[in-house]
Specification:
By secondary structure, the protein is an alpha/beta fold. The chain has helices at about 5-10, 20-30, 50-60, 85-90, 160-170, 185-190, 210-215, 240-250, 300, 315-320, 340-360; strands at about 10-15, 35, 45-50, 75-80, 100-105, 110-115, 130-135, 155, 160, 175-180, 200-205, 225-230, 235, 255-265, 270-275, 275-280, 285-295, 325-330, 335-340. The strands form six sheets. Strands 11-10-7-12-17-14-18 form a seven-stranded mixed sheet, sandwiched between helices. A three-stranded mixed sheet has the order 1-2-3. It has a three-stranded mixed sheet with strand order 4-5-6. Helix 2 (about 20-30) links the parallel strand 1 and strand 2.
Length: about 375
Amino acid sequence: MSNRSELLRSITISPETSVKECLEKLNKAGVGILTVCTPDYRLEGVVTDGDIRRAFLSGIPFESSCMEIACTDPLTAPAGCGPEEVLALMDHGKSFTVDQLPLVDSQGRVVDILLRHNMCFCNESTPSMKAVVMAGGFGTRLRPLTETLPKPMLPVGDRPLLERIIDQLKEAHIENIDVTTHYMPEKIIEHFGDGSKFGVSINYVSENKPLGTAGALSLIEEPDTPLLVINGDILTQVDFNAMLAFHREHDSVLTVGVRQYEFQIPYGVIECEGAHICRLKEKPVQKFLVNAGIYLLEPEVQKMVKPDEFTNMTDLIEALIAMGKTVTSFPVMEYWLDIGQLADYNKAQSDITNLDGAEKEDE
């Protein structure tokens, strides 16, 4: 066992591992996959980031065994497989591309794990996606703070929120970024310039009039990769590359980041059949999936946005559903906060110390 890599040992779990433990281990490892093995490393299955998120959407209890959600017939490669062959398997071994590939010996035991981003022959000059940050809103609910600054430029901790978003995009290897502007654009442009000092390339898209949450997409150059769209008032630690993998796995034209929202009804709820009471629930909690303001869309969707026309992202979603296209929900289980109101902004200020501290520990 000692000849196996530290990475492989860190992502190997037993079949008895719970879904909750898988989530914790995935977050710590940060490579998007766990190998489920017997004590002698015989492969029983794999658990991916996408498997965890699908379990959440399906309501599978997180106390369940990981084998309830694991893929028991995963894509693998034989030990000693050459790099070109490995990349071909990653690209064509399934109906969607994969970024991690276990290597197994003749007895089905895992000997190594290969990651696409670590393979020197992988063409890293080709971006996997581009991004648009919607930063044109007035931020009226945050007045008086937004009387002198646009909402995305409000400081969260020691730097503007928009700088945190751009840094997160860079960490995900997304370096071509469009920023839509309308309210006080000069404040944003003066701070970021062309983006070079932040390690990215920024193009500014000016809305002469408010165009909604999707209308400004008609003003950007047509992308040749999936396009990540994020509202400029979101503080989150969501894994953008995991979202892309989820998007590809489901062959989606548009993937919507969703967040679970819970609401407790402050009264006892009575259910009746006619006049007869059949059930009483004391202050039940209702759970909903709400829009998290993060989207991933294919180039064909961007083409649907009509020039100079007010369009919300919800309009696009409804149109795609009506056309029978695949629109997918991606549960955001990482930290997420919409800084739209003063109470939320104040919460962000109290949360950011812990978030920054956790990032430094991971480094």
